[in-house]
Amino acid sequence: MIRLSLPITLSAGLALFAQAPGNPVSAPAAATPPAVAEDVAIIKATPYKPTIHRDPFSAPRDERPADALDVLEDIAVKGMIKKDGKNFAIVSDSRGNVRWLPVGHRFKDAEITGITDKAVTFHQWELNTTNRSIFRTITKTFKREEGKR
Predict the structure, then answer these.
(1) What distance in Å separates the CA atoms of residue 62 and residue 137, rounded to the nearest whole number?
(2) Is the Cβ–Cβ distance between 139 and 125 less than 8 Å?
(3) What is the pLDDT of residue 53?
């Protein structure tokens, strides 16, 4: 029974499909010219816009601030300031820049961990390692300079 109903169903479906109205096909009025491929031998001028894309010939910039490149040996501790209940260490670097730095400020190889009335405490780690859990504690006392004459 199933074997007989399958050919009957298929032939009925084809008959109904043949009776369906179709879209009339019109003859093409004029033959369209074939699409011309771009000639790869033609050299086109492309304007150079370095503001839109990164210039591939420029060196990448280090986005870290300049004081993050200082090592602890180049830092001299000058004093301490209290402002709004926070302690700030007054430090100068090898370039002669003097700054106020809070607890937690990081240098290239160290971090400020404590500021007291007489000294600043640092945690210093190896320069060539990424493991900062191994450190040594360094305390630098204030080195006040006398007035220049």
Answers:
(1) 28
(2) no
(3) 62
**Which CATH number do you get for residue 128?**
2.30.30.830
What are the φ/ψ torsions at residue 60 (nearest 5 degrees)?
-70, 145
Whether residue 17 is contained in a domain is answered as: no
Task: Name the more confident of 135 and 146.
Answer: 135
CA neighbor of 111 nearest in space, from 64, 65, 68: 68
Q: Are β-strands 119-124 and 136-141 bridged in parallel, bridged antiparallel, or unpaired?
A: antiparallel
CB atoms within 10 A of CB 99: 13
Is residue 88, in this structure, part of any structural domain at all?
yes
Distance between CA atoms of 13 and 28, rounded to whole angstroms? Answer: 32
Strands of the 98-102 sheet, one edge to the other: 76-83, 86-92, 98-102
From residue 126, alpha-carbon distances to 50, 96, 134, 143, 147 in Å are 39, 25, 8, 25, 36
Structure token digits, residue 110: 């160290």
Which pLDDT tens digit goes with each residue over 39-57?
778 888 888 776 666 667 7
